[in-house]
Amino acid sequence: MKSKWLSQTLFVAVVMGLLLPKVGLAIPAFSRQYGTSCTTCHLDFPKLNDFGKAFKDAGFKFPKDDESFLKTPPILLGAPAQAELFPHTVYPGTIPGLPPIGLRYNQFYQQVSSNRNNFNQVLPAGTIGTFIPKSDFQPGLFSIFTAGNFGTGISFWVDDDISVAGANANGALGDAYLKFHDVSRFLKMPTDSVNLRFGQFELDLPFSQARSWNLSGWDILGEANIGVQNGIGRPESVNNGTGLDAAADGIEISGGHSYQGYHYSLAVMNQNTSGAAAAPPNVGPQNGVAFSSDSNFKDLYGRFVYRFNLEKNPESRDGVQAAGAMGPRDHTFFALGTFGFYGRSVQTVSGVLADGQTPTVLTAREPFYRIGGDVNFNYRTFNLFGVYVAAHDHNLVPVSTVESGAITGFKPESAVTFSGGFAEADYLALPWAMSIVRWDQVKSTADRVNFLMYDPTAPPASSFFSPYRATRNRYTLGEQFLIHANIKASVEYQIPPQQIVYDPATGIAISKPFRTNVLVTGLEFVY
Amino acid sequence: MKHINFVALIAIAACSTAAFAGTIHGKVSGVSGVSVVYVEAIAGKTFPAPTQHLVIDQKGLMFTPHIVAIEQGTTVEFLNSDSVAHNVFWISISGNKKLGHNLGTWPQGQKQSFKFDNPGYVPLLCNVHPEMAAYIIVSPTPYFAETDKSGVFKIDNVPDGAYTVTAWHEGAKPKSNPVKIAGDTAADFTLSK
User: How many CB atoms lie within 10 A of CB B162?
Assistant: First the structure.
């Protein structure tokens, strides 16, 4: 009974995971500090305009003469002249004159099409299935976030979900980092060519999933690579839960600017492909620090992008914003980027030595990579962009050479791969109204095989259970309205990938392919 | 002799003008802060455009001054003292959208000039910093004044006569009253938002 309750809960969680909107952030604390509107930095929060990108690049400061814009002066943690005494004094810094704290809440309403309960038809007669309502009001996130700078080129960011889906304090820390800007000045290198970031952060993705303005995240950025041996299809044994959008704990070196020219980043971070953190009994909890890696290997991530601002006038082209005839505006630009992620997933299994008797622990180290490219084109208020990702996991399948069938080793099989991406067009028809058209695609044979015979009593941890094809296409139409600069109403109509219901016992299809379309509306405010 | 007579005539005329010039004083109430009071256009009378330019600065994401009264025909120079791009535009003058104008973009330290030939109130905005606002009140006559913060004003050297006097305040409905000037004349206004 408990198991059934658990499975139903998991099922609902899976479905809600598919439906529930992703989140984005804007920082109203900066509005207070500088006495300016959200739209100074955001087009349709949290989507940044060119000035917002420059503000972020500079360490949450105005790119030039920051102090002249602050309506509340920072508090000095030591007079600037103290710097001359260094190292015989603590180097002087500042803290923001106002606590730079912002809060955010969102609320959703969703309407799910009639196919929503199709999987219940495979349940034995008399079994109570999972019920997905036709319509539903959903509390979203109540989040707190703080960001700013401590002077001398050190910025910070922390965001945390205090409450998720009305369930009180079960949220999670988002990004939490310190960033040292323009370290290059100490190395006599070009300005802003070297920055260092420490802490937990979203990887320097072409388009931030954590701060996406869409109600639903981009599928490819959250795609994991799980391949199970279920007797269907080729043998696969990969357990790589890493999505590109997962928070990384580590160090990042970066440089350049996001509003013009080059930008790069290189990150070294914990690997945790299994999702299980190491327990610390060998070290003891006395230091109060747990572990979040599941292997000794540190993952690597790198990105390079070059943005060409296309204004003819050099002064306008090189400025933070372009000089339009009717006032400053975002540049017309074209950006090309590439990125890559490398890790080495570790799986350990209990097995025996070749004698067939002696127990041992067998370890499979499966190198994996994600590689991709991105394009971004902007003309005035029309923005067209896309990402392509190819993923490849080395696939070591457990084998047995002994009569008992116990695992004695691994043999390489064909790599487990997936690929896909998205393309999106945003059009800011009015300063307060943005239309969105989007196409997401993920091609994962593993996903299809894993969930080919989806059993609703044992739901898999996938948002796209029992896909009809290995290629999953999702089409999304969206419209977003700023009621005020800090209040947004959004609507998204999602046409998800096709699914199909198989009889879990026979594997025979018992439904026609179908889609479970979803209409999600959201209201959110920051203050 | 003829020359002496002409000078005498001018002197008499000047003295007579001075003798018939009055003062309008009063208070704008119902609102708080600076208001502007001005004499509306006088039929059959024109005034030369002032040669002195006025400067409105954009600094620290604010227009300075926030409210300024000028005489019709005055040229205003809009200076950008900020290191960020600004612009200046107004969608109308006294609600007349045909008189809206956008001055474009210019960098730090540079100015854009505009001669205000149409009387009325001009709400200045910046299209990248929507919180920025300022007002120019273009008076059709040289007889205008800004009140102090308590609403008190005084307009000197107004020739005696019957005029329409208008009081303007940010966010309030402007009010025009007929005022007959004869020497030192009081004119109070009560505005409401």
Answer: 10
Topology, domain B48-140: Immunoglobulin-like (2.60.40)
- Quick check: is A82 in a domain? no
Q: Report the residue from B83, B104, B129 with minimal CB separation from A36.
A: B129
Please tell me if residue B82 touches chain A, with a CB cutoff of 8 Å: yes
Q: Identify from A45, A55, A65, A318 which residue to disrupt to test chain B contact, counting B C-beta atoms within 10 A and taking the largest count.
A: A65
Peptide bond into A513 cis (omega under 30): no
Q: Do A69 and B82 touch (CB under 8 A)?
A: yes
- Alpha carbons within 13 angstroms on the beta-carbon side of residue A512 total 2
CA atoms within 13 A on the CB side of A25: 24
Chain A to chain B Cβ contacts (< 8 Å):
75
What is the ipTM, given to two decimal places?
A: 0.78
Q: A269 lies in which domain range?
A: 2-68+100-526
Domain B20-43+143-193: assigned CATH number: 2.60.40.1120
User: pLDDT tens, A142-197?
Assistant: 999 999 999 889 999 999 998 888 776 667 899 999 999 999 999 999 999 999 99
**Cβ neighbours of A287 (radius 10 Å):** 8
The answer to whether residue A89 is domain-embedded is no
Taking the CA of residue A314 and the nearest CA in chain B, the distance in Å comes to 13
Q: B74 or A355, which is more confident?
A: B74
Supply the pLDDT for residue A470: 93
**Preceding omega of A46 cis (within 30 degrees of 0):** yes
pTM: 0.87
Cβ <8 Å between A326 and B86: no
The secondary structure of residue A167, as a DSSP letter, is -
Joined tokens for residue A246: 């997962």
Task: Let me know if residue A83 belongs to a domain.
Answer: no
Residue A502 banded pLDDT, cuts 50, 70, 90: confident
CATH classification of the domain holding A44: 2.40.160.10
Closest residue on chain A to B132 (Cα): A36
Q: pLDDT for A342-374, tens place per residue? A: 999 999 999 999 888 999 999 999 999 999 999
Interface membership of A48 toward B (CB under 8 Å): no
Residue B104 C-alpha, separation from nearest chain A C-alpha, in angstroms: 4
CA angle A252, A258, A264 (to 5 degrees): 40
From the list A34, A68, A326, which residue is nearest B102 (CB)?
A: A326
Residue B49's CB is within 10 A of a number of other CB atoms, namely 13
Residue A144 domain-assigned (yes or no): yes
Q: Inter-chain contact A326–B89, Cβ cutoff 8 Å?
A: yes
- Do the domains at B20-43+143-193 and B48-140 have one common CATH topology? yes
List chain B domain ranges.
20-43+143-193, 48-140
